[in-house]
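Page 47, continued from p. 46.
Same chain as before, 889 aa.
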Amino acid sequence: MYFIAALFGSLFSIKPDLASAIWPAAGIAVGLCILWGRTILPAIALASLSYYLFGLQAYQPLNWILGVALALSCTLQAYVGYRLVSPILNKRFSLLTPTDILKFFIRLAPISCLISASINIPILIWANILPANNWFFNWVTWWVGDLLGCLLISPAIILITYRSLLNLKQNIVYLLTPSLLIFCLVITAFQFSRVQQSEKQQEIVDKRIKEVEFLIKTRLELYQVYLHSLASFFNNSQQVTQAEFTNFSQQMLNNKIQTQAIEWIKVVENTQIPEFYRQLSSIHGREIKPLKFNPSQSKQIYPIVYAHPKAENSKIIGLDLSSEKLRFNALQKAIDSKEMSLSQPVDLFQGTVQKKGFLLFKAVFDSDKPTATAIGLVALVTNYYDLFNSITYPLLNQVHTDKYQLQVTHPNGTMLFDKNQLSANEHYLSQTSHFNFLDQPWQMKLSISQNSITAQKDWLSWSILAIGTLIAVSVQLFIIWLMSNRNLIARTVKRKTKELNKEKEKAEQATLQKTYFLANMSHELRTPLNAIMGLSDMLKTTELDHTQQDYVRKIRVASKTLLTLISDVLDLSKVETGKIELETERFSLNRLVNRITELFSAQIKQKGLSFQVKYTPLVQDKLLGDEHRLQQVIMNLCSNAIKFTEYGGIQLAITYKTDVNHNDQFWLHIEVTDTGTGIPQDRITSIFDSFTQADPSITRKFGGTGLGLSISQTLIKLMGGTLQCESQLGVGSRFYFDLLLAKSESQNKHLTTTQPLSLQQQAEQQLNGMPVLVAEDNEINQQIIIFQLEQLGANVTLAENGQQAIDKVASNHFPLILMDIQMPVLDGIAATTEILKMENGRNSKIVAMTANVSIQDKKNCFNAGMIEHIPKPFDVDKLHQTIIDVLTK
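Result:
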């Protein structure tokens, strides 16, 4: 375990140094000592020795001594750490206080970890493994690495080993996971930073090799320029003496072009060889004999006539270059191509030690002859070592790069230059360059020590690893500190959660029971209320004196008030449970406005108030939306305005405009203005709360539940608008909202210019003489519905339950069927399903007439095949309008 942890820690060393910013092996060693005491120390020493010998060259005796010294210091550090924290851990782990935990961390790492860093860094510097000038960086890195390794690993070992005693069997993973995740993120960031640093260092190497390549190319181009000048010198002279050649060559050498020799080579026919060597001996003042590398059968020879510097090249005067293949091929190419030619690597004669070099040739031609015959060649002889060393050494020394290796290789595998100043254990970065000179490709590889590249240490990567690991340690410390209170908190949370769940269940059950109660009460109240409102409508058609008519009117007003109250309470229940929904259906805005006008005109007139409706009828008035809910909001606002207005009047204003972004949508602006009592400014916001009036005395004076505005606000919000109020006490109020409604695809083409018929007259036209089946089990409701239908001229047949309705349809066809839902024997839903399957009932139009008024109830009716829904108690106008809509479809 220690050996693996050490290998893992070595991955985080900041190159080119050896110390790592986190050393998990130190934590492993202390943790094992805490668990097993001093008996584990030999094993720790052996594992530590194995690692250090693995990293060093184990076959060298000195490295064995180093390995033993390093291993003993690491073992000593583990033992001291164990001795410092063992008194704290003698307690039961479950009784450790936060103070004990803090002491444990302080003694565990900062103090004990000084041992290994303080002993091992001087040893490694003494052994020349670490540079002495970086001792502080390495010492800090070593100490911090051991410190973080102990703080991160040792507590984790203790928690895992004593998880049963600490009751952490199920939670140990959760305790260690945060620190592990943070550490993984830190490792990722560290690796990223180190890659960035390596890329920067590699960029420096890339820059240096490009600089070397540029200088080499520049030097070679300079060779070409000088050689071309020398060739021109021979072309422009009838005969060049040795003194002239020496002076010209010396000028070239004064420019420090780093060449072994500058040569003039003569082209000599075989027949002229004896005479040529006699003249050559005369020129140099000594006997010169023909010199050859190897026997040659060439028709011509190419002996060296002049060579400068003279002293260093005297022995090559008279040497026939055609007798050596590589030289001959290069000079022959220069003659044939009339361009400069570079020889392959050859062994040079200059100097006491034979070295590799190259010859650069330029042919000189006799321009007086028609064939431009070559009379000779000028050549530069260069030693590869002198060339590359004279370039790289000044350049790299200038940028303080004293540890490097440069290798230049010829394509044939010949090593042209190899200068290595790197030590065996040196960390370095390399780059290879390929370039051509006179069609010869050269390969150059430059390796530079990381110590030479990095002007300062990679503190960024070090800081990321150290600080990030410290954060992980802090998180682990915090988690361990919280562990002491975990059980108590868990039990408290569990108890509180159980209590809250019970209360939540009670609240949900109470809400559900209230919802069921209100729904049932709504149905039960609507049934007798339907009888009261229906009978009052029937009574109103009889001959009554003035007093009786007043009584009937008051019964009707009280009934509508009660119906409103029932609807508001049911709507409030839906708002509280979040079950209030909107329907989207096609409706006529013109008809909605007319209906509201008819409903309130008489009531306002009786109160002695004026009622003004500002509305321009639409030509295309079919919109998509919830007509019932929109009407409910407007009626609530108008009812409130009438209730709180004693003088003056009420105005309903409806304006509209097409949306600028969507031509198929309308913006409706609806406002209701009154001259009533007004609302104090500090109460305007609260009037939209449930059961709230602007003033408590209002309830006593005007009545009401305070639900209308709250429900209206909710409905408008569901439609996408906001109900707003402006009011001045004693002057009046203005309620207004804006809605965006879509146009219906089917639109009226024009408005009727003739006087429209009333709803009752239109219904009479549709029902006159038509057979109508009424399925209703309540006797009073039967009487009311039959009375209303017969008033319209219908031939009514009665069925007291769903089964009777099926039997009636079996023998007769009824174009219109009014169907109650809750009936004995067979309910309205089942009866509707069966009737629509029958031959006589297939084309019947079935309308629900029921006290079941929820959205789900309506959906059930429509799913069964009914095409409309009339809620009880029904409004006569609603009955007439529904009959017209159904029979005209």
